[in-house]
């Protein structure tokens, strides 16, 4: 490097004091070229020979400066070739400076990101080595790989030559391959320490019971005989800090905390934990609540004042549940309830909600999920779905309210009053009894009836098709402002039921089904 420094000292002597800034810019560009050629294996002597004599570089600079000055003078005459030469050189210099700025910004961002990754990985390795006695070979080897990259980036930003480049390159490859091999072997992530415990649950008839888990968990119940003490059995993979905070008891509440996430969650893959409640079958408990991120909740033969489940993803299966109130909130969990007697409220955004053989006031909401309700008895049942599918069948519902935006709603063999609001979805109604009120915008409506009923249908542009058994005592009053109307049904003079259908521009078709009615 001494020979290079002497080269620039000699070149500097050929520049005027007023042009030192220009000299520094030229020096910076030449140093960048020298660094590239050194990395390619050229010697200092070869590089300096290729650059030319210092006085030649200085003379070329002053020649360009003279030409630039002449361009701005009115009396000088300059050859066209010289003008083109100066113009091209100036554009090349500007492009070079712009690319250099972009390269510098990119290197700074990569350096910052790599530094954060190194600190994150090393911090995880140190903390979990001390607290959990876990030697994180996978994260450590990945940290070494990023340290090698960081070393290269920092030297490049400083304009220094990377020393031992081949050794650094080899170390980075080895560390990356080692990290990948550990990942494929399934031992890269921290999975927790095995832990098991059984403890009694006292005074559940008076106290609240709450379970919280940010780790995967499977929850189930096993009935026990009268007189036996309720208890809970836990088999889990937890951190040591999680084990210490597993149970929290207060005067009127018991809380189980099955794992809590920390800032290193991306480096952990916790195994599924198992929690089993042993509960007397005929005993009535106070409040049960479950809040989990991912897992399975299977509860059966429970009598509780209130039961609530909040889950992001997984499965819920409730069977033979007697409760004043059941609340379920889910992002995407398949939910099934059967044999229940309770007022139920379910908000399941994208999962399946299946309810059968139950009684109580029911409210089910979804965005894109399936709602399937079968063999239910209720004073009031509400269904709201944006883009999913609704199925209501074989139920006795004093009041059924359905809100449908773009999904499909199928209602069959419903006994009671039915109210439906539909935007752009498809409605299929079969053999409903009671009364029907339907507001429709653009959706398609298909109704097939064996027995007569009173109905009022108002539609905008949606098509309405009604198929009625031929011997039904029904009077149809149909009209449309601009749609086609077709009525094949002969109104009975003594009709005790009336159907009114009005549309703006949607077509209306009333079809009489002759002969024996086919279910």
Automatic annotation (TrEMBL):
It holds the Pfam family DUF4097. The chain crosses the membrane at residues 104-128, 134-154, 166-190. It comes from the Bacteria. Signal peptide: none annotated. This is DUF4097 domain-containing protein. Keywords: Membrane, Transmembrane, Transmembrane helix. Residues 221-383 form the DUF4097 domain. InterPro entries: Toastrack_DUF4097. The lineage of its organism: Bacteria, Bacillati, Bacillota, Bacilli, Lactobacillales.
């Amino acid at each position: 490097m001494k020979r290079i420094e002497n080269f620039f000292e000699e070149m500097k002597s050929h520049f005027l004091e007023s042009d030192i800034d220009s000299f520094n810019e030229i020096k910076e560009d030449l140093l960048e070229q020298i660094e590239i050629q050194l990395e390619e294996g050229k010697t200092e002597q070869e590089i300096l020979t290729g650059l030319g004599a210092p006085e030649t570089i200085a003379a070329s600079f002053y020649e360009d400066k003279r030409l630039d000055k002449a361009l701005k003078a009115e009396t000088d005459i300059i050859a066209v070739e010289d003008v083109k030469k100066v113009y091209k050189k100036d554009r090349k210099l500007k492009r070079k400076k712009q690319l250099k700025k972009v390269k510098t910004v990119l290197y700074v961002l990569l350096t910052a990101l790599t530094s954060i990754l190194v600190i994150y990985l090393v911090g995880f390795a140190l903390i979990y080595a001390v607290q959990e006695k876990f030697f994180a070979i996978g994260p450590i080897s990945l940290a070494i790989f990023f340290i090698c990259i960081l070393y290269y980036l920092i030297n490049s930003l400083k304009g220094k030559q990377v020393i031992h480049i081949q050794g650094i390159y080899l170390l980075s490859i080895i560390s990356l391959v080692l990290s990948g091999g550990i990942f494929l072997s399934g031992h890269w992530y921290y999975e927790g320490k095995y832990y098991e415990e059984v403890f009694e649950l006292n005074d559940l008839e008076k106290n609240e019971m709450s379970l919280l888990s940010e780790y995967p968990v499977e929850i189930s119940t096993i009935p026990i005989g009268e007189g036996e003490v309720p208890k809970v059995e836990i088999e889990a993979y937890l951190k040591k800090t999680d084990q210490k905070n597993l149970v929290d008891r207060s005067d009127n509440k018991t809380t189980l905390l099955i794992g809590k996430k920390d800032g290193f969650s991306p480096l952990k893959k916790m195994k599924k934990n198992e929690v089993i409640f042993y509960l007397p079958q005929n005993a009535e408990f106070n409040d049960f609540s479950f809040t989990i991120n991912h897992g399975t909740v299977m509860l059966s033969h429970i009598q509780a004042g209130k039961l609530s489940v909040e889950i992001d993803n997984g499965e819920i299966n409730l069977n033979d549940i007697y409760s004043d109130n059941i609340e379920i909130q889910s992002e995407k969990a398949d939910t099934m309830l059967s044999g229940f007697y309770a007022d139920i409220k379910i908000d399941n955004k994208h999962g399946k909600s299946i309810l059968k053989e139950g009684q109580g006031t029911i409210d089910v909401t979804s965005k894109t999920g399936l709602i399937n309700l079968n063999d239910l008895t209720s004073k009031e049942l509400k269904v709201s779905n944006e883009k999913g599918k609704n199925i209501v069948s074989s139920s006795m519902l004093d009041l059924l309210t359905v809100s449908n935006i773009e999904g499909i709603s199928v209602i069959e063999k419903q006994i009671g009053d039915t109210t439906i609001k539909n935007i752009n979805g498809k409605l299929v109604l079969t053999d409903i009894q009671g009364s029907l009120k339907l507001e429709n915008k653009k959706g398609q409506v298909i109704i097939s009836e064996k027995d007569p009923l009173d109905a009022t249908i108002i539609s905008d542009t949606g098509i309405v098709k009604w198929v009625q058994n031929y011997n039904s005592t029904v009077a149809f009053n149909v009209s449309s402002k601009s749609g086609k109307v077709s009525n094949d049904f002969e109104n009975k003079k003594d009709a005790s039921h009336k159907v009114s259908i009005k549309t703006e521009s949607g077509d209306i078709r009333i079809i009489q089904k002759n002969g024996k009615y086919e279910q």
